[in-house]
Amino acid sequence: MSNINARHIAYEVLYTIIQEDGYSNITLNKYFNQYKVEEQDKRFISEVVYGSIKNKLYLEHILKSYSKGRVKPKVKVILLMSIYQLLYMDKTPNFAVIDEAVKLGKKIAGNITGKFVNGILRNIERNASNLDLKYKNATEKFCIENSCPSELYNILKIQYGVEKAQKIVISFNEKSKNSIRYNPLKITKKDLIEKLGSAVSESEICEDSLVLNKLNLDSSLFTKGYYIVQDEASALVASSIGLPIDKKYKILDTCAAPGGKSLHIASKYFNSSLISCDKYIHKLKLIEDNKEKLGITNIEVKEQDATLNNTSFNNKFDIVICDVPCSGIGVIKNKPEIKYKITNSYVEDIAKLQYDVLDNSKHYVKQEGILMYSTCTIDKRENIKNIEKFLKENKDFSLESISLKNSIVKTRENGVLEILPDEYSCDGFFIAKLKKMEEKC
């Protein structure tokens, strides 16, 4: 790594996420690659970044209680990450955390800033066991202490009730299990488990997934394409199709990039052909790169907007995958910055876009074919409400019950999969399976 230290990199990453609306995983990888960060420093930086973002509203409330007036954005980021370290990370002594914050403050904004940072942090450290924070009411206290914006909390409360909403909000700050998916084209699950040993265990959620017991795996196996990183819930889309895997099908993925589900389906339904579409050609390059590494030969990528009808596709596909863009509420555990972007109007807008994609995708399904609809969100407007509207307007489609093998995930009464983040240690997810029938009179 260059002469820039781990805390400075953590600051740069956090500033990009907070002030420039960056995404945590993308921003972290960018800086890790730029500075060739070693594994030990990666773990430290990741903990500071994710911890500070997950607890941002609470950290801001503490800072506001212990500072007078407006704090400049750059200084605020230094203070937030330092308060997080003081309260949540015990491997580094408090004096060292404060000393490093002062050095960083001086470097970023001058000597006077260093003195300001020192005074704020020492005051917080002295009162850490009794911060004596003020709240307007119990609801505000819950939202701030769990760093959940009130608008997001209200959305969840209206849809799931107070008790369930609070469980979901609390789960956002918990860690999800990291998982990988084995590649059946190159190795059996049993053989991969033998090669990785105690580093992995079998998933109870998806039969094609393995849960990581430690983060450092044999990278040569990844490079050779024996496994790929994919969340257990995301991997359930391929498992939810439920058709015999040895038969030949024509499959279309209308919103494929970055391609995890397309790659999974193509390797699972190895005798079938699959067209993966996306409107962004640079994202399709990710699918091209991964299919080569994984040894997948039955995927063709195509640049196409999922909201626009391609008449050459009409009534041509046995299986159509409609994994639509969504608000991402289900993946907040791994992308905590998302919770600060959720508004009612944003969800309503994206739900309309989703419906447009679903309504256009129906044209591509053959008679007796399957249309899979999935999202990584838990807002009902993006999920079951879209499905109910679709079924009301398209009498030639029926909702089929999803059946999973070797999974603890239970299908809801209406046959869909609704995975809530407080119920399983994976992403929140929604999957519905629709079948095209003869149109009813």
CATH architecture of the largest domain: 3-Layer(aba) Sandwich
Q: Find the CATH superfamily of the largest domain.
A: Vaccinia Virus protein VP39
CATH topology annotation of the largest domain: Rossmann fold
Topology as a string of helices (H) and strands (E) = HHHHHHHHHHEHEEHEHEHEHEEHEHEEE
Overall geometric form? globular
Detail the topology: elements first, then pairings.
Blueprint: H1 6-20, H2 24-35, H3 39-54, H4 56-65, H5 73-88, H6 94-109, H7 111-126, H8 138-145, H9 150-160, H10 162-172, E1 179-182, H11 189-196, E2 200-202, E3 209-212, H12 219-223, E4 227-229, H13 232-241, E5 250-253, H14 260-268, E6 273-278, H15 281-294, E7 299-303, E8 317-323, H16 344-361, E9 365-375, H17 384-393, E10 397-400, E11 417-419, E12 429-436
Parallel strand pairs: 5-6, 5-8, 6-7, 8-9
Antiparallel strand pairs: 1-3, 1-4, 2-3, 9-12, 10-12, 11-12
Helix pairs in contact: 1-2, 1-3, 1-5, 3-5, 4-5, 5-6, 5-7, 6-7, 9-10, 13-14
